Structures are given as structure tokens and as C-alpha cells.
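Q: Here's a chain of 314 amino acids. Please give me its 3D structure as C-alpha cells.
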Amino acid sequence: MKKLYFLLPLILLGCKSNTSSVNDIDYKVSQTEVSDFLKYLSSDELEGRETGTKGIEKAAVFLEDFFKKNKIKPYFASYRDTLTNFKSPAYNIVGVLEGTDLVLKKEFVVLSAHYDHIGLENKQQPDVINNGANDDASGVTAVAQMAKYFAKTKSNKRSILFVFFAGEEKGLLGSKSLVEKLKKRNFNLYTQLNIEMIGVPMKRDYLAYVTGFDKSNMAQKINEYTGKNTIGFLPKEAEYKLFYRSDNYSFFEAFGKPCQSISTFDFENFEFYHHVSDEFKVMDISHMTLFIQEFLPAVTKIASTPTEEITMNL
């Protein structure tokens, strides 16, 4: 998540059923694959994945290889979308799965997360690598597993753009750069789900929250689609205006459509925000696997409903 300077002191100290439920998804997310993916993306080898460094280049290659392995095509000439607003070469990694419906495939759902982090500490200390396991290798892992699911099941009637952003920690640069290009292509956006910091669970009666809860009916529709109390309202999110702090905001600003981030970081369950201890070993892999599994019916419905059911609130 884009650095929240004013938050550091704080950080350091049932729905109605629907015909689509979790049990309707005949697909099991592999906990081993979730673990292996996250472990590499947050490993010391990648040196904190700061935009423009050798570490994030290794991450880019890893993500490109993942798309190739799962037969997800590049949206542009290659998977690499060069940032137009960063001094040295930097890339979003962008893949696409065309929708299966002749009409609905003209509409796009964007599933995204940022794969950059804040790199190395300048001061001398035993550990200098900000591995960024929760922020946001966890979100990238979730989006990757959703991409694998759709590539295998072909259950998306709408087209899906899978985006791993660079430059988020530099000021949402990757998403700002990409939306300019998409607007020029008359990109037909339905909605965006951006996944941010889902590596540890909350002690609440819902699984996750969306930023900008009242801006659209996304929370209500996700709960309807999962048949569970999947999304709840987090007052701290509204207080600190997290809607404006991640890559969903660039898309909302450009397209005026429901574009929101989904997270399980609630200011109480994780004390290592932008800290060298944000490492793989403190991630809850079972929770992450459950999170991805529970969202599959929701993203499937979002990608397949005959009409655009997720709408902005007036």
C-alpha cells in the first residue's frame, strides 16, 4: 500500500443466500501453490522489489512466466507495460483472458495488485530487506491464483485484465500510467477489484473489507454472490480514506466506475507495515487460501452476469 506516513505511529504501536455459493465452485485453491508463490515473491532474492531495481526485475520475470505457464495472453505487445512517468525502466505486468460471450467480452473486469515494495533500508542493521510479504505480495498471490482459476475453467463471459502494478509505493505511478493508455483505447471497464494486504486474518465477523464502502454496492453484491458475510464495513478505512491510497483510485478517477480495494489489514492484526519484518514467515497461508477460495464465486459472477449489477451509489 502506498506509504501512509500519518499512519505509521498507529501501525507500529450474515447475508441472504444466492443461487451461487462457495460450494458451487468445483475448484480447490492449492494451499501449497499459494505458499510457494508467496514465498518466492517475498524472498530475500528479490531485495524488496523496489521499482526500477534488479529485484523487481526478477519479480517481473517470475510473473511473466506465470502468465505464460497458464496460457494467459499479454494485453499489449508483451506482458510488460512500460511506465511513462518513472525515470528508469519500470513495468506493469498485464495479461488478459478474453470473455466467452460474444457481447459481454467487450466489457472488462480488472483484477489487480501491486508487485512493487519499498526495497532496502539505508541504515545499517541486521536485516535491511523490506520483503513486503503482506504489502503486497499477498495481493499479487491472490490475483495470480484467480487468474489460474479462470484460465482453467474459462468461466468468464466478460474479458478479464489481470494487472500487477509497479510504482504503487512511488505514488500510484503504475496505475496512473496504465489508465492513460487504456482511455486512449476506449477501454470498456465494468469494475475493478484491487487486492491489498490479505496475508493475515481479522478478528471480525466478516472476512475482508472494501475501501470506499459507501461509494458503490460492491460489498453487498459480493456478499450476495458468495452467500456469506464476506465483506464488512471497517470504520478505520473510512477514517483514513484508504480508497484514495491504492491503485483502485487511479481507475476510479479515470473511468468513474466501481473500482475498490479489498483488504484484511485492519490496523490491529499486523504490526509490520513498511517494516523489514513483513516476511513470509508471519503470513497466514491457510487464511490466504480461504480468502481466494471464498472470492471465486464472487469474481465468477462479476465476470458473468448478463447486466452490470455492481453500480456506483448516487
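Q: Can you summarize the key feature?
A: The first strand starts at residue 73 and ends at 74.
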